[in-house]
Amino acid sequence: MSYKFIDIGSNLCDEMFQGKYNHTGKQYHEADLGTVLDRAWNNGMDKIIITSGRLSEVKESLELINKYDNGSNRLFTTIGVHPTRCSQELVIEGSENNEIKPDYIKELLKLYNENKDKVVAVGEFGLDYDRLQFCSKEIQIKCFEYQFILAEKTNLPLFLHLRNAAQDFIDIVKRNRSKFKYGVVHSFTGTEDELKQLLELDLYIGINGCSLKTEENLSVAAKIPIERLLIETDSPYCDIRKTHASYKYVKTVFPILKKEKFKLDSQVQGRNEPCNIINVLEVISGLKPEQSIEEISSHIYLNTLKIFFGKEN
């Protein structure tokens, strides 16, 4: 059975797709992004949204799209600043009140206006209190709220990041809810109560392997209404592993080798790929036995078209 997928979040600019791992600069194998993309297209992938978390990544994503898309209209990107990068990217170094760089958002808007057919969301932006060593709560909150300017000026949907910061996140979204139509909380790992509050804000929920590690994760994921559900890989991260509670639902397995034994026709162990999105679908199907996997797949695909590509059901 074949399915049609849209990966709403994939880090295709990551150096792992260039054969480099652990930020050492060591080249383990040849760059293989083209092969990775072909594997995705050959396994039901219709479109991929590249996650960009700073200005330089937006530029890199657009270059990647120009190189690999070949006019097929299958690769897209986001514009925004990831919460862990706000200190470095958005704030004027040494400023007394953490002042925002005045031209940074203008540059992002310029890229959007020059590439409207390829920029489909504002993000990845939000709050991440698990990694405060990279950026303080104070700066994250200020920069999260500030970036709603992008939402107002572009009318794009939001690709939102939330880690261990639910109450502040919800408060900020509530204050700015009139500034956007659609928003997706990607890579959701929160509690059932947090899910309930996000759904009350009319937000959508993005699920990947990181969302499905534990039995508690699975219990929450099972409660996401199908009409509010999207799927992603967050590749090269967030793969579903044999140690995860979700693995019992996985049916599709691709050939895989360690990076030291790299071959183009195999995946690399520990490196997630967009084609593995089928595993996320298989897990969700296992959690929602009252619906067929075909129905679930179709509903998720149509949800994604509506939110990011303006195609209402």
Automatic annotation (TrEMBL):
Binding positions (a divalent metal cation 2): H161, H186
Keyword Hydrolase listed: yes
Single GO molecular function: 3'-5'-DNA exonuclease activity
Keywords: Hydrolase, Metal-binding, Nuclease
Binding site for a divalent metal cation 1: H23, E124, D234
Source species, domain of life: Eukaryota
Record flagged with keyword Transmembrane: no
Transmembrane segments: none
Pfam families: TatD_DNase
Family annotation (InterPro entries): DNase_TatD-rel_CS, Metal_Hydrolase, TatD-like, TatD-type_Hydrolase
Gene3D superfamilies registered for this protein in UniProt: Metal-dependent hydrolases
Family: Belongs to the metallo-dependent hydrolases superfamily. TatD-type hydrolase family.
PANTHER family: DEOXYRIBONUCLEASE TATDN1, TATD FAMILY DEOXYRIBONUCLEASE
Name this polypeptide is given: Uncharacterized protein
Species name: Dictyostelium purpureum
